[in-house]
Amino acid sequence: MSTMRRRAPMLGSSMRKDGNLLAPSGLSAERAGPTTFGGNESWPYLRVAALRLSVVFLAAAAVPLGAQQRPWELRDFAMPGGNFYVRVPAFVDAARAAFLTDDDRVVGIAGDGTAKAYPADVVVWHHGIEDRIGEVPVFVTWCNECNTAMVYRAQMDGRDLMFFHTNMVSQNMTFADRETRTRWQQQTGEAIEGPLKGRRLPIYPFVLTSWKEWRDTHPGTLVMEPLAGFEGLYAVWRDVIRWRRPGRAVGASAERVQREDTRLPAYEPVVGVSAGGAQRSYPRAILEKELVVNDSLGGEEVLLLYVRASDMVTVFSRKLGGRILNFERRSPSGDLVDRETASRWNAYGECLDGPLRGSHLTALLGVPQFWWAWTTFYPATDVYAGMGAAPKRR
């Protein structure tokens, strides 16, 4: 494995000629020495043990969702000595990614002949990774409070955008771009303040899956290297991510937000889908049970696929060439087929065999997150209640 360095050029900081900052040594010490970022202020690096308390803080008393509205400014760190965006990530090929195990979660994106995987624990702690896929600038994000990963095209009107930390709104992270000083909501990509208010960042297609699933599907993938010196912090979030899988919803006694929609427990893991101007929440526990969901939403025919081995959900339109397809898993093989032509498909919407071989379903966005986060930003959503049951409405 190559030497890992902390790569995060920041406003007001002194940088190496290659634009990177070396990781401070001795992160387990009380301070790694004051490092100047953003003018003359010193931002001490707290010891790993102290920062582990941030996980305990997740179980604190309930916080009103509007309590994070405060004046904001562009910041390199979410808080003094805390999370910072990675602006120049380093990558290795799959064979050298010894820091990942098969069941580790990754955010995967592919385009322009390139596939990249970002370890979920790294994205969660840093909150944002700036990168490029070919010539396209992307911003890989994860709000740990909402348990929401999102990837955006970091560009508006042909202009590349560089993002900085701002305060939380409705218990969801926000960020602002340096170029226009517009503030954006991570959950929706919507501009909530500034010159571009009301517009939305384009979503860059991504999938949240296991490292094995991504590696098997994209054997030539590149993998973002974790930053040296932060292993203890990443390990904490790796454990939290594994604990948040379906069936492990946070109990009511540990809820950190006040319930405003009680159709599901606040921390129930769900997948949110928007189609045809309508929104629906699909509980992960139901998806894990049914595996294949043929549904209609907002006048559109949608398909949700759950892959148990990788805890992955993919979402597609069921309309292909003017025909509506219905899908099922065949026993005992478990093959995914459409009932109309008996063609065989994979979980990425690609037809592998049969009359429709070579066809591709149109992908839709399904966003894994906590129920409270989805309903906060999409209060008109209904809830999928299972095959043949009417959706739960407010």
How would you concisely characterize the structure shown here?
The protein is of the alpha+beta class and 394 residues long. 13% of the residues lie in helices and 31% in strands.
Describe it.
The chain has helices at residues 48-51, 53-57, 120-126, 211-217, 231-243, 284-290, 371-377; strands at residues 91-93, 105-111, 114-119, 128-133, 136-143, 148-153, 155-156, 159-160, 163-169, 172-177, 183-185, 191-193, 207-210, 222-224, 269-275, 278-283, 292-297, 300-307, 312-317, 319-320, 323-324, 327-329, 336-338, 344-345, 351-353, 363-364, 366-370, 382-383. The protein is an alpha+beta fold and 394 residues long. A hairpin with a 5-residue loop joins strand 24 (344-345) and strand 25 (351-353). The longest helix is centred in the middle third of the chain and has 13 residues, at 231-243. The model is unreliable at 1-69 and 246-254 (pLDDT under 50).
**Helical amount:** 10-25%
Number of helices: 7
Compute the separation of the termini in Å: 52 Å
The biggest sheet, with number of strands, parallel, antiparallel or mixed sense and barrel status, is: 5 strands, mixed
How big a fraction of the residues is strand? 25-35%
Structural class: alpha+beta
Tally of extended strands? 28
